[in-house]
From TrEMBL:
This is Radical S-adenosyl methionine domain-containing protein. GO terms for molecular function: 4 iron, 4 sulfur cluster binding; coproporphyrinogen oxidase activity; metal ion binding. It comes from the Eukaryota. One of its GO terms (cellular component) is mitochondrion. May be a heme chaperone, appears to bind heme. Homologous bacterial proteins do not have oxygen-independent coproporphyrinogen-III oxidase activity. Binds 1 [4Fe-4S] cluster. The cluster is coordinated with 3 cysteines and an exchangeable S-adenosyl-L-methionine. InterPro entries: Aldolase_TIM, Coproporphyrinogen-III_oxidase, Elp3/MiaA/NifB-like_rSAM, HemN_C, HemW-like, rSAM, rSAM_sf.
Length: 456
């Protein structure tokens, strides 16, 4: 459960046990539809591609990123293609629903790298002309100058790492762009992909106040497109910012202040037509991130590149259970392993049915729509949401407080509850584990009874 909580704070197919065909026509149709949706869980996947290089390390960042010692873009491109091909063959998915190039700083890559990876995907699986293809962009003059080439390479959505519109804050964060450069990058991205540009902005920054944050949001909303991602600055051990805070050189807002900033942002964005659809994400004109939404819906995703994570069934190896996979972290070692064996999967763990349900629960509850009954049933046909959570006294208390909602639609957080999600999840995870364990015991008991009956 602890591992699941960590996974949720950053961003399977278990043994899908489908109901047998019923004798009534209505239930047969329902079962056929369920089989179609269930088949989609293994036939489709999204693809994440990690470009590990940055020109510098931001003061707050502990992501898997490296300052390149030499230009090995050609080798990196070949290895990204090779691993993409290998893992797609291993998964045997027939359709890639979206592609996301993250990092690191993927806008440092040559546009031909992006085109080569997308071409590899298209050779192995169906990648629709309308599939969402996102590239993270550092809003420097160099990043901006390459946007059109990235667009022609196949990118149709940009995620711009604005982070702040305050010069001093950008310096403290170790960013290498100015507010003006960020605004120019957003404008160019919007020209190329109108309605498909997201901006990342960070709150809880050193010396930031609620009032300054509100003013900054108003300025951002005058230029942003139809999608905004909010991130609270978190202190990570081993970073320069962590050391500065520890030594008293830098102070951060209190928990109460950052909570107020989050609530302020939710209200301000909503007033400007950007509706919240996930804990950190807001969109208007339904310009949601389809790639990230696939994570929150518990669908398969394939991770390519140094340190990338994936969740898919390795059908090509005879697998029937979803695996959690992690690729080798260090780029040089990763490239060597890809050249030797086609991929650099360093760690793979089969997910039990409980672990799969934990992921579906934790990721699904991040969305404002939560988890509907039909979707939950795809992963848990024998234990519905009401059966799992409807009789728990702890969950009932959360329902009575108005923080959770469990009704005919499914399970979700209220407006107030979504801001408290991290404190609500432990009770839900404990109840899920209890109910799944109890069901396993009941099944084992029934099996034992059947065996004793057949032996007499």
């Amino acid at each position: 459960m602890i591992r699941m909580m960590r996974h949720a704070l950053h961003a399977g197919r278990g043994a899908l046990c489908l109901r047998s065909f019923s004798e009534t026509r209505g239930e047969v149709i329902e079962d056929v539809l369920q089989r179609t949706d269930s088949a989609r869980l293994t036939n489709e996947a999204s693809l994440y591609v990690h470009w590990p290089y940055c020109l510098r390390r931001c003061s707050y960042c502990n992501f898997n990123k490296y300052i390149p010692r030499e230009n090995n873009d050609h080798m990196m491109t070949e290895c990204l293609q090779r691993e993409t091909e290998t893992l797609l063959q291993l998964s045997q998915v027939s359709c890639i629903t979206s592609v996301f190039f993250g990092g690191g700083t993927p806008s440092l890559a040559h546009p031909s790298t992006i085109a080569a990876v997308l071409e590899t995907v298209s050779r192995q699986a169906n990648l629709s002309d309308t599939a969402e293809v996102t590239l993270e962009v550092n809003p420097t003059p160099v990043g901006r100058s390459k946007l059109e080439d990235f667009f022609h390479a196949g990118v149709n959505r940009f995620s711009i790492g604005v982070q702040s519109l305050q010069d001093e804050d950008l310096k403290v964060l170790g960013r290498d762009h100015s507010p003006q450069q960020a605004l120019l990058t957003v404008a160019e991205a919007r020209r190329l992909c109108p309605g498909r540009v997201s901006v990342d902005v960070m709150f809880g920054r050193p010396k930031q106040s609620v009032e300054s944050w509100e003013n900054e949001l108003s300025e951002l909303l005058r230029v942003c497109d139809d999608h905004v991602s909010l991130y609270q600055l978190t202190l990570e051990r081993g970073t320069q910012l962590f050391k500065q805070v520890l030594e008293g050189e830098v102070t951060l807002p209190t928990e109460e202040e950052t909570a107020e900033m989050y609530l302020c942002a939710r209200k301000t964005l909503h007033q400007h037509g950007l509706l919240q659809y996930e804990v950190s994400n807001f969109a208007r004109q339904n310009a949601v991130s389809h790639h990230n939404r696939s994570y929150w819906k518990g669908t398969q995703y394939i991770g390519v590149g140094p340190g990338a994570h994936g969740r898919f069934v390795p059908v090509g190896e005879g697998g029937v259970l979803r695996e959690a996979r992690t690729q080798t972290l260090e780029p040089d070692i990763w490239m060597r392993e890809v050249q030797q064996k086609g991929h650099a999967t360093r760690r793979k763990i089969q997910l039990s049915h409980l672990e799969l349900l934990e992921e579906v629960l934790v990721m699904g509850m991040r969305m404002t729509e939560g988890i509907d009954h039909k979707h939950w049933e795809l992963f848990s046909p024998q234990l519905g949401l009401h059966e799992v959570f409807g009789t728990s006294s702890d969950v009932q208390e959360l329902l009575q407080r108005g923080q959770l909602i469990l009704d005919e639609r499914g399970l979700r957080c209220s407006w107030e509850g979504l801001a408290l999600l991290d404190s609500l999840l432990p009770a839900l995870l404990v109840e899920l584990e209890r109910r799944v364990s109890l069901r396993l015991q009941e099944d084992e008991h029934a099996k034992g009874q059947t065996n004793r009956t057949s032996n007499t």
